[in-house]
Task: structure prediction
Amino acid sequence: MLIEHINRRLRELDATASRRRLRETATPCGPNPRLSDGTDLLSFCSNDYLGLANHPQVVQALADGARRWGVGSGASHLVSGHSLAHAALEARLASWMAPHIPGAQALLFCSGYMANVALMTALGDAQTTLFADKLNHASLVDGALLAKAALQRYPHGRLDTLERQLQACSTPLKLIVTDAVFSMDGDLADLPALLRLAEAHDAWLVLDDAHGLGVLGARGHGALEHFGLHSERLIYMGTLGKAAGVAGAAVVAHPTLVEWLVQSARPYIYTTAMPPALAHALDQSLALIEGEEGQARRRHLQGLIARLRQGLERLVAMHPNLALPPSDTPIQPLLVGSNPRALALGAALQARGLWVPAIRPPTVPVGTARLRFTLSAAHTEAEVDRLLAALGEALQELPA
Result:
């Protein structure tokens, strides 16, 4: 009965062109992967925004870390798995956020998903209301649903609605929860305005900066540096598997909040700590991000973003059934409408040697299926031009 039920559900996915499929790569992360079947592609799929996932210094740091620390932590942080490598990485991240969060302390997690679920469930008790943007990442949504707090969602970016919700709220504790860079549209939340609302209504601002850390800010310190924000009310989550190129995540906040996470966050307490070798590699990655090389990579990345957007804008002008939402980040979505149309366009690009994901519901709202281009500092201008030329050809072939 169970197998029959699941097979029926899978056929339903097939009927709406919604089934996802795995692909195996046979090369390290980079713009030019080879698939397991030997196919060579030019990829615009990765979140490796600064091209650090295969950076020689980061690779060497991981090897050095493995020689010093071995390949596993052996236990959760609270048992015996917390090493000097973890502590050093937490100290570096706390120093990054110290200008923005008074007394900032950092706490490592194995993934951004776990960090967000930990935040929502540890802070979202019965005395709390969570106010969440409707386009928040799934990890924030799932964490909010698991929490004991009341949940109110506001339409994407509609701070007027959020303000009314805050005014009407009677719970003692209030948490505004938002992505900094929204992962499917690439737009930035109005964090200064959100912080003003938090201060005006005695609320706290929980910020998921998964796609901003390393990319935004003069030194790559993320969205708080980009906007120049400073407040005790900020609770920051940064992912370390995207622009930082490795794995894991960290929450940075007031020391009392971090201590409460240590004592109560189940995804922290009941999980084996990340291997200390990864923490060792991440320390090198963060050093690159805030140094001269990181600055140069961000400048190059911004040039690629501008080049891609100019080309996409020209194509949208020629094909009015497409839409290009505003985004100044490495995430550039081209909305094409239906699932079959998005899949067909992605397949046409792959036939030309390009790998671009077709993003479909439920990841995005129905009717907004899209191609999602993500840029890396490892890309070249010539590769962006190749993408635009191939996309122009594919659009000419696609039925209106």
